[in-house]
Amino acid sequence: MVERNISEEERKLQETAAKVLPAGSFGNEGSGIVIRRGEGGRVWDVSGNEYVDYLIGSGPMLIGHCHPEVLAAVEEQTPKGSTFFVNNEHGILLAEDICEAVACADKVRFVSSGSEATFYAMRAARTYRKRDKILKFEGGFHGMNDYALMSMAPKRPGNFPQAQPDSAGIPQKVQQEVLIAPFNDTDAAVALIRENQEELAAVIVEAFQRLIPPAPGFLEALREVTEETGVVLIFDEVVTGFRFAYGGAQEYYGVVPDMCSLGKVVGGGYPLAAIAGNEAIMAHFDASRVKDDEFMQQIGTLSGNPFAAAAGRATLRVLREPGAYDRLHATGRKLMEGITALLEKTGTKAQIVGEPPLFDVFFTEEEVRDYRTLTRVDNAAQAKFNAGLAARGILKGGNKYYVSLAHTDEDVAFTLNAVEESLTDLHADA
After folding, report:
1. What phi, psi does 348 have (nearest 5°)?
2. What is the pLDDT of residues 51-70, one digit of tens each?
3. What is the value of pTM for the model shown?
4. pLDDT at residue 399 in the model
5. Which residues pair with 234 in a beta bridge?
6. Given 3.40.640.10, 1.10.10.10, 3.40.50.1100, 3.90.180.10, which CATH number is that of 68-319?
7. Structural domain 8-66+322-429, CATH architecture
């Protein structure tokens, strides 16, 4: 197995991280790498190793690291101030861009993270519907708020619609307010919504759940039954927004919800997210539009700050350039087709799951269509494969290739070579 060169400087930083950070990391899992800089579709660690970057900051850097237009926008704002709390021009104009791009967006309210966006979207739905319960889908990721952390990754999948908390510290009462449905099981989901319509405020769904595309007719059925029952339909587009198409999953799949949450790409690599929705629901953010007991509190110190909004506007300008999404999808297809060919060449029992801008390899021959099929993949083989890629200069998340506009044909060729070598090693070890 190839091993990454680690300098003494990086070793010391990792030792410090272990002392001062839980798990030695900024997140739940330990991090075996310390990144120093990024440019385009590549990053460099403190030891000087270079990587083709398919992590892209967990998704925000869709146009690449240090894009000249984003740098220029942020540098122009720097001497003018970093945040003011009240309205600023970049925030207003970014909201206008979102309303023009996203089908469900009559109005926009900014926050600083995707977790906040989904939290407030669900609160807005409860306010509008005067109901408490939320239906989400098993395996769906909607951030780190208490309602979201239900059956996101249950260790022992239970009976629908019983929710299972994914974290310690969540009040038991929250568990009683969340119903769980199977993703891509149209009949079961529709039946649960109809059966519980009098208690449901909203259905929240990733139109593309983690890496699993919706089954034909699934999103359309959710839209039909929620319109029929009056339940609010929320698309969590923190990942898909501005990634699959300029209008996000709503444009890509042709289904328009009542509300959506946005994040990652929309902030251009800076802390910014948004709730977007139709006029009737978004009115509850405006005290002048509703009764006192219908007004929904929402505020944040850095919400819509001009740095993030300027970066977001610059990013969206790049994405509006003719052919941008054609190039993004073409790069993703080259990778998907190339990896599929290598899986066949090496006789590897694995498959590509996803769409060109966002996909991964899963070590299973079973069709991956929901969370429960994901639990049956060979995670040990996947971990070894990913370790081989990292040692060969490919940086990715545990189960994602995020493709960016900055990735080149050279990056694709480099990646496919690393994939072939890593698969060869995997078979040799087996």
Report:
1. -85, 130
2. 999 999 999 999 999 999 99
3. 0.97
4. 86
5. 204, 259
6. 3.40.640.10
7. Alpha-Beta Complex (3.90)
